[in-house]
Predict the structure of beta-glucosidase.
Amino acid sequence: MKLVFVLVSSLCLLSKADEISNRRFPDDFLIGVASASYQIEGAWNEDGKGENIWDRFTHDDPSRIADKSTGDIACDSYHLYKEDVALIKAVGLDFYRFSISWSRILPTGYADSVNIAGVNYYKNLIKELKDNGIEPMPALYHWDLPQPLQEIGGWLNETIVDIFADYAKLCYQLFGDDIKTWITINEPKQVCLAGYEGGGFAPGIVSPGVGVYNCAYNLIKAHAKAFHIYDEEFRPKQNGRISMIIDAVWYEPGSDSDADKEAAERDVIFLFGLYADPIFKGNWPQVVIDRIAMRSKGEGLEKSRLPEFTPEEQTYIAGTADFLALNHYTTHMVNASTVEPEFGGPSFGKDINVIEWDLDNWETAGAGWFKIVPWGFRKLLVWLYNYYQTEIFVTENGLSDFNGTMTDDHRITFLQTYLTALLQAIYEDGVNVTGYTYWSIIDDWEWTGGFTSKMGFYAVDFNSTERTRTPRKSADYFTNVMKTRCLVDSCV
Ligand SMILES: *[C@@H]1O[C@H](CO)[C@@H](O)[C@H](O)[C@H]1NC(C)=O
Ligand SMILES: *[C@@H]1O[C@H](CO)[C@@H](O)[C@H](O)[C@H]1NC(C)=O
Ligand SMILES: *[C@@H]1O[C@H](CO)[C@@H](O)[C@H](O)[C@H]1NC(C)=O
Ligand SMILES: *[C@@H]1O[C@H](CO)[C@@H](O)[C@H](O)[C@H]1NC(C)=O
Ligand SMILES: *[C@@H]1O[C@H](CO)[C@@H](O)[C@H](O)[C@H]1NC(C)=O
């Protein structure tokens, strides 16, 4: 009976999302594209840049990457950034979200040794954007920690809080007069969970049930300090906004039962709320505190594996985001687990204790985990808005495929259905979404996917030394969307 209900309700949602919205984007709604330093710049050891943890991770063991590639050259955007800006302008986009390579500016990671060539690269990029009427939106940290800082423990060493704050302050000083929106850190979940729990991402540390929380604890404090420095010393004259980007999957309950609904919500809270609750509300979510305390006790530990924020820290951290910056790609189904896992070695998965699965009829274009579920996007926006009661800016969304076809009708359909879900959230559900960011303007180096995962409006020929960029059909489609602010041929 329940199963029948699930299928019927999902089918309704699917057919609803199949209707492409003919409403226009609100007038002040901003649309742009995003990238990250390690994924596009290349020039990994040029002009004084220091080594970072992704340089080390890829050089140490190429088998970590699907095609054994590295970001040594990537899209060569360090040299070709003017071409990138020209493409962003050609599509008519409002802003460009990029990231600053910490070790390009500070080769050792510490603010006492500035690499002028690195500073000039970002000054030139920002100037090129502004000259072309494109708003620059930099992130201070998109995963590429300077390697010398990893040698002292990386995000597990509490001194990273002050070291990051010094770097942030320098960036506000150097670039802040031209910046209206700052991002401190992109996707802490990937930094801490992929980096320090399972080790699938740099720095590749395997410390289940422990590393992820210690990383999150220091990372959130580093973010908060960077926020306060901006807020107190720079905002009064530079007048910008600042936030941390957090990525979220939508977890749909596997049935209408209270147990499944509770499990799905717990999954969102463990994976998103772990980072968002402290910066919006001041502390870890209660269900996270309770479950890790319970599991730690069962494991015979005297203290919870989750570090505690002191009352002073809670006050300091609360409210350190001017808006909710959201990266979103996919949805999974969630069932409650009927058994509590044995109290052996700890892990993040045991702390959450849910069963994730996917519906058979969900499509995917590239990696198997990446299901195309537009209605999940809408439900996520509604849930986040109700829970955090704050403006939402979508800082990443996009479609990966493996064949890189130039006639990418599936990408156009993806954009139409996901952006319809976004417009429905705005117009039908009253969610305050103020911006959308497509990942990415050009194909890039997709972390452990290497060059196999194609996501660009423009293809890049990674076999040519010129790294030639060529528009896909989606580039033309989106150029028209930017002109008409409409997803179909004509809008109401
Ligand atoms: C999840 O629950 C649904 C309905 O209660 C059931 O049909 C499905 O098999 C379950 N899936 C998993 C992976 O446990
Ligand atoms: C943490 O970093 C400091 C330098 O900032 C260093 O002196 C200390 O040894 C590091 N701690 C650990 C545990 O590596
Ligand atoms: C490439 O992959 C996409 C997504 O799976 C598919 O829709 C498209 O038909 C494929 N195109 C070619 C030329 O293989
Ligand atoms: C959305 O949030 C922004 C920033 O807080 C605010 O200026 C705007 O009025 C809000 N819009 C709606 C429709 O609530
Ligand atoms: C380079 O070209 C070869 C042969 O056409 C192709 O198999 C390979 O995928 C290309 N490499 C990249 C990174 O595009």
Q: What stands out?
A: The mean pLDDT is 96. The pocket of 2-acetamido-2-deoxy-beta-D-glucopyranose (ligand 3) is lined by residues 365, 401, 403, 405, 410 (CB under 6 Å). DSSP finds 17 helices and eleven strands in the chain. Residues 143 and 191 are 6 Å apart (CA to CA).
